[in-house]
Amino acid sequence: MLPLALVVDDEPDICELLSLTLQRMGVDCHSAANLTEAKRFLVNNRYDFCLTDLRLPDGDGLHLVEYIQNGVHRDVPIAVITAHGNMDTAIKALKLGAFDFVSKPVDLERLRTLVQLALRLNQNRHRPQDKNADQLLLGDADNMRMLREQIAKVARSDAPVYISGESGSGKELAARAIHAQGARADKPFVPINCGAIPAELMESEFFGHKKGSFTGAHKDNPGLLQSAQGGTLFLDEVADLPLDMQVKLLRAIQEKCIRPIGASREVPIDVRILSATHKDLGRAVSEGCFRSDLYYRINVIEISIPPLRERSEDIPLLAEVIMQRIASSAGLATPRLSAGALSTLQQYPFPGNVRQLENILERALTLCDQQEIRSHDLLLAQDGQPFEKDEPPANANANANASEPKNPDHFDSGRYASLDEFLHSIEKEAIENALVKTRWNRTAAAQKLGISFRSLRYRLKKLGLES
């Protein structure tokens, strides 16, 4: 049976054009000239898609959006037709729950893309969900249940979504969950950290370039927006975009086309924009650091990720999932969390949220001597402060004389790209020295380093020294 669409417009010529376009796509159509007639059709039929003009003889098309979203037809994607340039009304429709919008005069190619996406939503609704997509969004806390409900709702729209939340709280995981449950799930999800791209490379990274357009452009580069074609572009730390780049991005979002550096013509793009930052974006706007027009364009729908300290009841479940993953990657059995360790974690304020919990558990897994992680393995005090230097956990200083690694007071910034790389090299050299001195007897090397054999196995795999 063919999909069925409802077209609502009081201009017969436009209504006929829209209906013919849909019919050529294999979609049956019913046409209504006003709100009253549209509601009568909705009572008697089950539609896969609805397209409505905003100006109707007996009311506003926004009323129809609300009627569909708040009634038994809430699963029907509805798109609105707006007057050219009337972005405020279009955004209002999106906030009310419209799937998308198209401006007059209607671009038929744009309309076809919109309809295909809307129809794909109904197909994806019956597809098994990828449970790994929102693995760390699990939890029974009320605020997490509400978050999952919000994600399911916004996934049924193609509107831009702004995700706010503290660092490490799971903003990218929320974005991936929105993508996975939406109409673009079978297309690319392209994440980009806006603060990690050098300013001089930003335009090329976003919009692409043609071969020979500048020194070093040895081949064509499609750029991130084209790489995400048909799918979702996730702009993480969007507040870090320079002002000149904000102007160019706003135009790309509104015009749905870009011009790669060195190209002679614009390239159409079809992507959904999700963005996030741990900063107060509204404050950035008031301070003049972020353009207000871009802010209102990307912040059509906002969802907030709760910090971990506001859902401490979820820590046991999160800890179990994280430890299973870490232990599995290291080829180790998953350790238990003692009651004391669990209590310590639930009392800790977690300024770094779930990401910090992962780091704490990974460190604890390497320090624990048995199949149980205890409070002192966490290197956290009951009041949420780190252990003092004169209160280390067992074996913490036993490796002080195990080897003679590089002097940590002399960080060679010319040799190492980061402090993490420098510390990584110190750990690797200390373990290699201990292994050499014990003739690669791992049990003896572990004793010399003051760590458990299990911890040494984990570190050898992490550092690529297993062989």
Describe it for me?
It is a single chain. The protein is an alpha/beta fold. The chain folds into 4 domains: 4-124, Response regulator (Rossmann fold, 3-Layer(aba) Sandwich); 154-304, P-loop containing nucleotide triphosphate hydrolases (Rossmann fold, 3-Layer(aba) Sandwich); 307-396, Helicase, Ruva Protein, domain 3 (Orthogonal Bundle); 401-467, Arc Repressor Mutant, subunit A. It has 18 helices and 16 strands. The protein has helices spanning 12-24, 35-44, 61-69, 87-96, 108-124, 142-155, 171-181, 202-207, 223-227, 243-255, 281-286, 292-298, 315-329, 339-347, 353-367, 419-437, 442-449, 453-462, and strands at 4-8, 28-32, 49-53, 55-56, 59-60, 78-82, 100-103, 161-164, 189-193, 232-236, 257-258, 267-268, 272-277, 301-304, 336-337, 372-373. Strands 2-1-3-6-7 form a 5-stranded parallel β-sheet, with helices on both faces. The longest helix has 19 residues, at 419-437. The N and C termini lie far apart (60 Å). The model is unreliable at 382-405 (pLDDT under 50).
